[in-house]
Write a structure and sequence with these properties.
This protein starts with 15 loop residues before the first strand and ends with a helix. The longest helix is centred in the middle third of the chain and has 17 residues. It is an alpha+beta fold. α1 runs parallel beside α3. Strands 2-1-3-4 form a four-stranded mixed sheet, with helices on both faces.
C-alpha cells in the first residue's frame, strides 16, 4: 500500500539552519560550533540571528536561546545534539 502523502527529501542546497542567540552567551558559542560543523558536513547553509537586534525574535525566544530552526521550524533549544541535527538534515 502506497501512502497518500510522501515527504519529499529536500536537497542540502534547499535547506537552511538558523541559529538564534545573542553575544556573550556561552551556550550560543557551543551551539554555533555544532551548527557550523554539521552544516559543513551535510552541505546545508546556515545563518545566525541576534535577538538583541530583533524585537520579534527577542519576544519569542529570549528564554530559550540558543534556538535552532531548520527550514523555519524550531528544531531545538539550549543544547544542540550534533547527531540529531545531522539526522534531521539528512532525513
Amino acid at each position: 500500500m502506497t501512502p497518500l502523502f510522501r515527504r519529499t527529501k529536500k536537497k542540502p542546497g534547499d535547506r537552511l539552519v538558523t541559529l538564534i542567540g545573542k553575544p556573550g552567551c556561552h551556550l550560543c558559542d557551543d551551539a554555533r560550533a555544532v551548527v557550523e560543523a554539521v552544516c559543513a558536513q551535510t552541505g546545508v547553509a546556515w545563518e545566525e540571528k541576534d535577538i538583541t537586534r530583533d524585537e520579534a525574535l527577542h519576544r519569542e525566544y529570549w528564554e530559550q536561546i540558543p534556538v535552532v530552526l531548520v527550514d523555519g521550524e524550531q528544531h531545538t533549544f539550549w543544547r544542540v545534539d550534533p547527531g540529531r541535527l545531522r539526522r534531521e538534515l539528512e532525513g
